Amino acid sequence: MFLINCPYCGERDQSEFSAGGEAHIVRPKQPTELSDDQWAEFLFMRKNIKGVQFERWNHAHGCRKWFNMIRDTSNDKIHAVYKMGEKPPTK
Amino acid sequence: MLNYNSPIKDSKNYSEIKISEVETTAKINLRGKNRDFITKVGKELSIIPPTDPNTSSGNDSLNILWLSPDEWLIYSNNKIDQKNINDLEDRLYNSISKVKIGSVSNVTDHWVMINLKGAKVYELLSAGCPFNFNKFKNLKGAVTQTLINHTDVIIHNKNNNDLNIFVRRSFSNHLWSWMNDSAKFI
Questions:
Q1: Does CATH number 3.40.50.10380 belong to domain B12-183?
Q2: Which residues partner with A69 through β-bridges?
Q3: ipTM over 0.85
Q4: Assigned CATH topology for domain A3-83
Q5: Pick from A12, A61, A65: which is nearest to B152 by CB?
Q6: N or C, which terminus of chain B has less Cβ within 10 Å?
């Protein structure tokens, strides 16, 4: 269990949120020109690293807004939280 | 046409906690983003939708609760008949939805409003809620959306130890039972 600082509502318990997987995956501009392998790579393949990871989260039981989070998966330490469309903090 | 039929129709008293369902208050959901939307709502209701998170604004008859940066819930303080709910919805629909600056949904039947009063209301909620009420209980008009015993709720701090809780109709009996069970042990 850990606390997440929703960029809209403030600090809330993790149980109010749902994880939405890896962040900043860019949709291919011309999906029809991709091979099946390339499409599957975009659609299904995700990093699952032990360490600092960029993730999408949704405040499902609160404001229902999506946002991004930089989290260390090994100890759940949250390095930054930022809104959708914003660039990740550099530090 | 809506035909409101309350799923609970009950009121219970425990030591320092009173739990009661409040019937037929108008509830309308508003969604919009631009400045024009805020102005139109303010003009129609004489209340400006709050833009600060977890807050509300209101007057003698209506409250507007902040739900997210582009969503608000309006509810009436007092029991209101069906015709007045429809009139309110029509007024908002004509000035907002019809001109496509936002959306207006009548959610009177969607949400059930439960009122909690008494010195131990926060002890009751803390028994099944992950939210930290320390700051919330001192802020009159504060709003939060959270979980109570795994059920989604909107909580409005109406006054000192006087809360209105909105729960989805299909979960209302479950939450009602949980509250009554828990209140017996507090």
A1: no
A2: A55, A81
A3: yes
A4: Folate-binding fold (3.30.2270)
A5: A61
A6: N
